[in-house]
Amino acid sequence: MFELAPEIDAFVRVVERGSFAAVATEKGYTASGVSRMISRLENSLGAKLLFRSTRKLSLTPEGEAFLPHAQRILEAIELAGAELSNSTGSPRGHIRINCGTAFANHKLAPILPEFAKTHPNVSLDVAVTDQRVDPVSSQADVTIRVGDLVDSGLVAIPLGHVARIIAASPDYISMRGMPREASDLLNHNCLLLRGFPNQASWPFVENGKHIKVTVAGTITSDSAETLLCAAVAGTGIIRLGDFLGAEALASCQLCSILTDTHIRSEQPINALVQPGRQSLPRVRALLDFLKSKIETCC
């Protein structure tokens, strides 16, 4: 099977990029040349891997079944090559990243140009969602998670920490008043992130006692970025990660609330990787880059 490594690589990249033409440009082939490589692989396997049409390519059931095996074959070749060359070669290949909107927009996007410049042979596919996804079934190479982790068998690489703040816009405070104690929040419109446990339970220390206030409001969303925009627009009070609110606070679009009693609930930021994949040169390069950039500012 290893003698078909170029054909296997072409197959995986076609699936990732979605067209023969895109892979042809990337590899320096013609689109028809890439198509012939896939055909050679299909003939060798005795199975059709791709449905071809003038509008799009899609995996056949056999292609769906073969794809993870193809990816593992390429990873084995890459790891073997890295060991033989003592990892002195330039990282290359494709990395799939999954992360939430807050991290993507406020941490990842600003530093991606530097990574792309440093590693021009590595391409990135960033999937952004505030819904929890399974890193294995989504085939993500690197999944960024904020918060405590459950034991999943994945390798966790610490990237930094995030603390929570409570904030609202000056317009909202002018209209509804500034909360002076935790119980005042019960009379305010609080913006909540949907799909995560305990999001409506905000922690405080008052008179030496730990308390939690269960807040409510007229807007919930599965997007932290949407809630931030709503808070800046004066819709309500938000509890959010400090790096998500940093720019709005610095520009006075938001004001911190209950800073003396609110528990900031510092949580870790981790990159999750399937065991063994952290040794792939392209993945290791990304992880080292993220650690160097994010640990210093979180």
Give the CATH level 1 class of the largest domain: Alpha Beta
Low-confidence segments, ≥5 residues, pLDDT <50?
A: none
Counted up, domains total 3
Helix content: 25-40%
Q: Compute the average pLDDT.
A: 87
Secondary-structure-derived class: alpha/beta
**Beta-strand residue fraction:** 15-25%
Radius of gyration: 24 Å
Following the backbone from N to C, one meets helices and strands in this order, namely HHHEEHEHEEEEHEEEEHEHEEH
- Note the overall shape: elongated
Major sheet: 5 strands, mixed
The name CATH uses for the topology of the largest domain is D-Maltodextrin-Binding Protein, domain 2
First-last Cα distance? 45 Å
CATH architecture of the largest domain: 3-Layer(aba) Sandwich
The CATH H-level superfamily of the largest domain is: Periplasmic binding protein-like II
| Individual helix count | 9
Number of strands: 14
Q: How do the strands line up in the largest sheet? A: 4-3-5-14-6
Topology summary:
Blueprint: H1 5-17, H2 20-27, H3 31-45, E1 50-52, E2 57-59, H4 61-84, E3 93-99, H5 101-118, E4 122-128, E5 142-146, E6 155-162, E7 164-168, H6 170-176, E8 190-193, E9 201-206, E10 209-214, E11 220-221, H7 224-232, E12 237-241, H8 242-250, E13 255-256, E14 267-273, H9 281-294
Parallel strand pairs: 3-4, 3-5, 8-11, 8-12
Antiparallel strand pairs: 1-2, 5-14, 6-14, 7-12, 7-13, 9-10
